[in-house]
Amino acid sequence: MLAGALIAYDQIGAGWGAFALLFLLPDLSMLGYLRGARIGALLYNAAHFYLGPAALTALGVLGAQPVALAGGLIWLAHIGFDRMLGYGLKYREGFGATHLGRIGRPDAW
Predict the structure, then answer these.
(1) What is the pTM of this model?
(2) C-beta pairs of 35-43 under 8 Å, 24+ apart in sequence
(3) Do 94 and 30 form a contact (C-beta atoms < 8 A)?
(4) Which candidate among 30, 37, 75, 83 keeps its CA 20 to 30 Å from the CA of 97?
(5) What pLDDT, in 10s, does the model give residues 59-106?
């Protein structure tokens, strides 16, 4: 997903400065963990589920909206990067419990 989103982003000719500026934006959803694991997981998963960026990308393509297309591709790249690093969708047991397995130090489990 990461490679495909990067290639597509390069092909549309959008600026890499915007990419760098917006790439980590979905991680602001981690602030939900300040309200507890349940809220944190809900917000994190909403920002890291493929449906949102896929819809935004489709809107950009079908509606000829270059900003939406660029935003969707940046978002898809972010999710692909997280998955590559092993950060999956979260369970409410805590940030380290993901659909890809546990993350973090084993002694913290």
Answers:
(1) 0.87
(2) 37/92, 37/93, 37/94, 37/95, 38/92, 40/90, 40/95, 41/90, 41/91, 41/92, 41/95, 42/92
(3) no
(4) 75
(5) 999 999 999 999 999 999 999 999 998 888 887 776 776 776 676 666
User: Taking the CB of residue 28, how many other CB atoms lie within 10 A of it?
Assistant: 11
Task: Give the residue numbers spanning the domain of 102.
Answer: 2-108
CB-based contacts of 57-66 (< 8 A; 24+ apart in sequence): 66/12, 66/14
Helical (H) or strand (E) element with 90: strand 90-91
Tally of structural domains, the chain:
1
CA 2 to CA 76: how far, in whole Å? 7
What's the DSSP call for residue 87?
-
Q: Considering only CA atoms, which of 87, 7, 19 is closest in space to residue 48?
A: 87
d(C-alpha 2, C-alpha 11), whole Å: 14
